[in-house]
Amino acid sequence: MQPATMDPAEEPPSMLWGLDPIFCAFARLYVRDILQMTESTQVPGIYFYNLHPIYKVDVLGTVVYKREREDFFCYGVDDGTGVINCLCWKNDLLKEEAEPTKSGGKHSDGAQGGFNPVDELALLRQAQQSRCRLEIGELLRVRGPVKTSRQQREIMASTFYKVNDPVMAVQIAWMMEVPQLYRQCYDKPLQLQPNATGDSAISSLSKAMNIIKEFLKQKSVTRFRPYDVQDLLQPLISSQPQTASADPEPVAGPSACQQLRQLLKEALQILQDEGVVYRKVKSQDEVYHVTAHDTDLLIAVKDVIREDSQREKYAEKGCHILHILSAVRQRHSLNVSKATLELVLKSLECNSDIVSTSDNHYTAF
After folding, report:
1. DSSP state at residue 42
2. Is the pLDDT of residue 330 over 90?
3. Which tops the pLDDT comparison, 10 or 197?
4. DSSP letter string, 167-222
5. pLDDT value of residue 202
């Protein structure tokens, strides 16, 4: 359990918080981490996770308890890592109890079976109430700032609604996306004032990725091993500036060979995260396949969409990207990531082999 408040010596200055993009976004954190975040000593209501300033979050979970008052709903939301209290204020429509029977009886005769605005408004109110009145066991998505009231961490909802997820597609997509956000954003400590060494390392990493991408594009490489591209990065290590030191004694540090291997490892990892390359089989022999040039992968994805889009279940809307990902992993490789699949789908769509019917749904021509 983290302490209740941040050590003032470790807390970044508040005037620099806006430099962190997470500060302006609804952070999709696990409930466990929301409950354990440390609170700012400079500004109450601001919390820190890995020095990232956070004040509003986005949570998806199951309602495990509920309480209703005249002005608000109080839901306990469980996302599998913990339970947090969510205070959801009612709007004016929810405070007023709809009376469809009276309004419908008064105006239905004059409308003679046609469009009745009063009845339609009553139906709209009922639909809104059904989305905001949740029962235990239903799925709730809530967004809002984090507050600490009576020594209890809770979310003051600015937006909340019931999620209809009969086949758990929303929950699966959420469980796949949130770990990616942790790896790419939340678990990387914030450095608002990087030093010259840090800037040099970032610049070298960016250059290394561009060199590898250009090599793969020019040579039309379908697969490669790390030692095939390692020598291409050698000039980046040789050209790194040496910092002057007043200490005449030599300081032990990583050798040029170790720096080169580390730079190559980090560059390949980022390229994997972006889906540019992937490892079809994870073994001691590191072989990376280039997504754009892997015809076997493109054929596997196209075959899955063509075959499954003919089934009655997917005939109307097409195959969802998560269904395609599962099928491709079974047919081609378990190591195909969602980012890799998205690049393949984009390529197939540009070639008019497939078409996106709606958000994240695809079908074959």
Report:
1. S
2. yes
3. 10
4. T-HHHHHHHHHHHHHIIIIITS---SS--HHHHHHHHHHHHHHHHHHHHHHHHT-S
5. 57
Chain-centre distance for alpha carbon 277: 20
Going by C-beta distance under 8 Å and a sequence separation of 6 or more, which residues neighbour residue 304? 319, 324, 327, 328, 331
User: How many residues appear in the chain?
Assistant: 365
Residues in CB range of 295: below 8 A, 6 or more apart: 222
Amino acid code (one letter) for 144: G
| Threshold 0.90, pTM exceeds | no
* pLDDT tens string 89-139: 887 655 555 444 444 444 444 445 577 888 887 777 777 666 678 889 999
**Is the model's pLDDT at 305 over the cut of 80?**
yes
- Residue 214 CB burial class (10 angstroms; 0-12, 13-18, ≥19): exposed
Q: What is the CA radius of gyration of the chain?
A: 27
Question: How far is it, in rounded angstroms, from Cα 114 to Cα 165?
Answer: 34
Question: Residue 306: enclosing H or E segment and its boundaries?
Answer: helix 295-308
| CA atoms in the 13 A half-sphere facing the CB of 266 | 15
Angle at 36 between CA 140 and CA 147, to 5 degrees: 60
